[in-house]
Amino acid sequence: METNRAFPLNAYFDENHVNAATVERYGGGHINETYLVTLPDGKYILQKLNTYVFKHPEDVMDNMVKICDFLHNCVAARGGDVHRELLNVVYTKDGRHSVVTEDGGFWRMTEFIDHTKTYDVIETPEMFEECAVAFGSFQNELANFPAATLKETIPDFHNTPDRYRQFEEAVAENKADRLSSVAEEIAFVQAHRPVCNKLMDLLHAGDLPLRVTHNDTKLSNILYDTQTNKPVCVIDLDTTMPGLVAYDFGDAIRGGAGTAAEDEKDIEKVGVNFDLFDAFTKGFLSTVGGSLTELEKDTLPDGAILMTLECGIRFLTDYLNGDVYFRTAYPEHNLVRAHNMFKMVTEMEANRDKLDAIIRKYK
Ligand code: ADP
Ligand code: GN1
Ligand code: MG
């Protein structure tokens, strides 16, 4: 339990409420600091945004407010529960979407969505198919969102060639003096350099359209109802901005179709579960398939390989830089994560025919 004086609760509540509040660390995200605030009459999620990652956190919140307002209308129009099926920003007493504290901390609050949980490893293909429907529906609902009003919260977020450039920079700088221990991993990434360009080349050639995508479709960014085990809400809208559909498909496969957790230490347990790949494809294409071009559908497996490779490159880069981006629990954490991503890439590449056949089955 943390002392609530360390948090900007005064900006949101009167003195009595502040005194009655308890605050505890919550959730397992790699980026922001997340806390559960409990008051006698309600629960809230308070988050300190990671300003190393989000250089302009006010842009993140401006986007979030616009997206949540838009989703509010969608959920209300279909008769859904507007306090459960979307994130609701809690405003300060003077009507602001965020608080900047004296030490420069950037904070936001949302309503806590109770009786939900997240998963690090999915339990059944059915649950993963439903996850796909949830992410697909999120994309469908935002199809009419005015994309030009969104700010780019992390420039070049899924620009894989640029991620490769940052990796090369990290190798050259060797800031954490870890280079000598990762020769094999570096060779793996270098051998995959040509793969990094595929989707960006198609985008730049005008062959793939930009849509409003979530861009961080990992399993723990879906809240599942603890009673029904069905997805309730898509969360973590910090990177929702224009992107390729293959990013959302691919990142979800990366984070959910594995046979083990992202940071499983026993590499033997790490691999791709093709039944889960099948289930996600089924749910996703049944939801967004009607609005996708043939090429978008055909390049979904490229997205799965690319997002997994990109994430592995990002973990390895962060390891080389001394763990400055992702939250880590021990020194080799990012390296373990990178290994696991590269093993999944290898397995998907070796089974490309199988992945293509699954896409054909549902397209
Ligand atoms: P990060 O960018 O660090 O991943 P998230 O916004 O995804 O931050 O939040 C981290 C975790 O906190 C989520 O995985 C989820 O478990 C929990 N969480 C976040 N917002 C809510 C909410 N409004 N209601 C319930 N749980 C939430
Ligand atoms: C981060 O924020 P979180 O924990 O949901 C990261 C994703 C990575 C993921 C890997 C803003 O997601 O891009 O794929 O970790 N988010 C950001 O687990 O960088
Ligand atoms: Mg998250």
Describe the fold and architecture.
This protein is α+β, with helices and mostly antiparallel strands and 363 residues long. The chain has two domains: 4-114, Phosphorylase Kinase, domain 1, CATH 3.30.200.20; 125-362, Aminoglycoside 3'-phosphotransferase, Chain: A, domain 2 (Alpha-Beta Complex), CATH 3.90.1200. Helix content is 44%, strand content 12%. It contains 13 helices and eleven strands. The chain has helices at residues 15-20, 57-77, 125-141, 160-173, 183-191, 193-196, 198-204, 245-256, 274-288, 294-298, 300-321, 333-350, 352-362, and strands at 22-25, 33-39, 42-48, 89-90, 99-100, 106-111, 116-117, 211-213, 222-225, 231-234, 241-243. 2-acetamido-2-deoxy-1-O-phosphono-alpha-D-glucopyranose binds next to loops.
